[in-house]
Amino acid sequence: TQLLEQSPQFLSIQEGENLTVYCNSSSVFSSLQWYRQEPGEGPVLLVTVVTGGEVKKLKRLTFQFGDARKDSSLHITAAQPGDTGLYLCAGTNAGGTSYGKLTFGQGTILTVHP
Amino acid sequence: NAGVTQTPKFQVLKTGQSMTLQCAQDMNHNSMYWYRQDPGMGLRLIYYSASEGTTDKGEVPNGYNVSRLNKREFSLRLESAAPSQTSVYFCASSLEGAHSGNTIYFGEGSWLTVV
Q1: In this prediction, what percent of chain B has a pLDDT beyond 90?
Q2: B31 neighbourhood in chain A, CB within 8 Å
């Protein structure tokens, strides 16, 4: 079973601060996705990274896939209250019995105070 | 744009009762999924259907059954509900399997409480 360990589990910061969320595994993933979920709604995809070392930027959010494709990070610059939510990483594996399935991390609950 | 629609949104069941969660997508996607979400555990895959006519077990299939009725619809059935099945259930779909990096679209969730 592939596991994704996400940290920290909770993050409470002030508006304007920077933060980083980590997603780590001992397994190699063919791709890794980051989702954001708001209360009462389903997760919404933010980004997919597929190449080791890949960095993608989405406005104030920067996503990085580790060189060995075992870990990823999400960095938010100058956080705003609208960034508040649950952030989930999820990995996919192209082969074996894991074909076509996502493995999710436990999630990071981010609260940004005005 | 409906996307992924699941019903009901809220349900309270007594232990031992049965019920079916319905899910439909209007994006002509081949793959559909059922996940459950519990505090501190992320989302765990219950069952998935890579294409119409096929279903496979996920990480936590015990106590559940599924039916891929047609390309649009994928239902989840609890035959004899247990308190451990109290959770938020999400249906999702993607054009192809998640392995190819396809975007997975989630429904809004169904809150199920078993008492």
Answers
A1: 79
A2: 100
